[in-house]
Amino acid sequence: AQERYASIREKPAVTVDGHTISLVMNAGLMADLPSLEHSGAEGVGLFRTELQFLIRSQMPKRSELVAQYTRVMDAAKGKPVVFRTLDIGSDKVLPYMKHLAEPNPALGWRAIRVGLDKPGVLRMQLQALIRASNGRPLTIMFPFVAQFEEYRAARAEVDKAIARETRLGHPLPETLKVGAMLETPSLAFAPQKFFEEVDFISIGGNDLKQFFFAADRENELVRRRYDTLNVSFLSFIERIVERCAISDTPLSFCGEDAGRPVEAMCLAAMGMRTLSMRPASIGPVKSLLLRADLGELRKIILNARHRGAQSVRPSVMEWLRQQA
Ligand code: PEP
Ligand code: MG
């Protein structure tokens, strides 16, 4: 399948009406990294660090993490990598870490909540990332930030780690960006100051959608009930785009929907300019974007919304058929 898209691999994803969409990939294991070259991804938009923790039987040592992150950055050969700090809890439980049974794990003690309440592992991870960067640029992202204060507290941990490395005389990252994942609707309504302080935001569409519609992403009974192209969800995405634009905050989308060509195209029409997806999706998504007029598509979407449609999908599919 990758071969089919070989001819557009090195091409940037520029739409018919001249918008450039940056296509990056999701990764989590060393085995994913060769895809950086095969797929034509411009970088790693989401490196899920918990995967390396999940495949082990005991807590890794800091030196092991330094070695792992060094290999990731080496393999990226200067392409940017966004390291997401440990996103555990809910569906991802570490067998060697004490975890309480929770009535509602998806709404429970997970991700940055664990990182802030029991900061030992987060601190070790931040130190390891700074050491692995070893004077190269470093980008860190916190999962599941639900309010401004959580971002501030997590960022303070980064500052502390930097101060410590400075005292030890270790090389510091050439540049450092610290971002937040927007996975709960609450963060979209944070004070504008949050959008000014954060270096970038990435929408975790899988979680955001489950909380927006209150429909468990793991539950087959409701998982597919609500369309990503539902007008309410797209309006919400548009609102986030607008809030980021006010303070020039870089914004990306890294849920599974970024890798579905029609969904990706509609997200771009709502203003998303960076999409992070599984490597095999880059070719198909790019192929559709190269043929898309986002301005026209946006009109189709706004029109469907104006008419009171529940999902814009039928209108968008009809529009695509007319062009074929
Ligand atoms: C998401 O929630 O969309 C996301 C990218 O994170 P994960 O799927 O790992 O929860
Ligand atoms: Mg998530």
Model description:
By secondary structure, the chain is α/β, with parallel strands linked by helices. It is built from 14 helices and nine strands. Strands 1, 2, 3, 4, 5, 6, 7, 8 and 9 form a nine-stranded mixed β-sheet that branches. Strand 1 and strand 2 (20-27) form a beta hairpin. The mean pLDDT is 96. Phosphoenolpyruvate binds at residues 46, 48, 87, 183, 204-207, 254-255.
Task: Provide the fold topology.
Layout: E1 13-14, E2 20-27, H1 35-39, E3 44-48, H2 50-54, H3 62-76, E4 81-84, H4 112-117, H5 120-133, E5 138-145, H6 148-167, E6 176-182, H7 185-188, H8 192-197, E7 201-203, H9 205-212, H10 231-246, E8 251-253, H11 261-269, E9 274-277, H12 282-289, H13 294-306, H14 313-323
Parallel strand pairs: 2-3, 2-9, 3-4, 4-5, 5-6, 6-7, 7-8
Antiparallel strand pairs: 1-2
The protein binds phosphoenolpyruvate and magnesium ion.
Give a short synopsis of this structure:
Belongs to the PEP-utilizing enzyme family. The protein is of the alpha/beta class and 324 residues long.
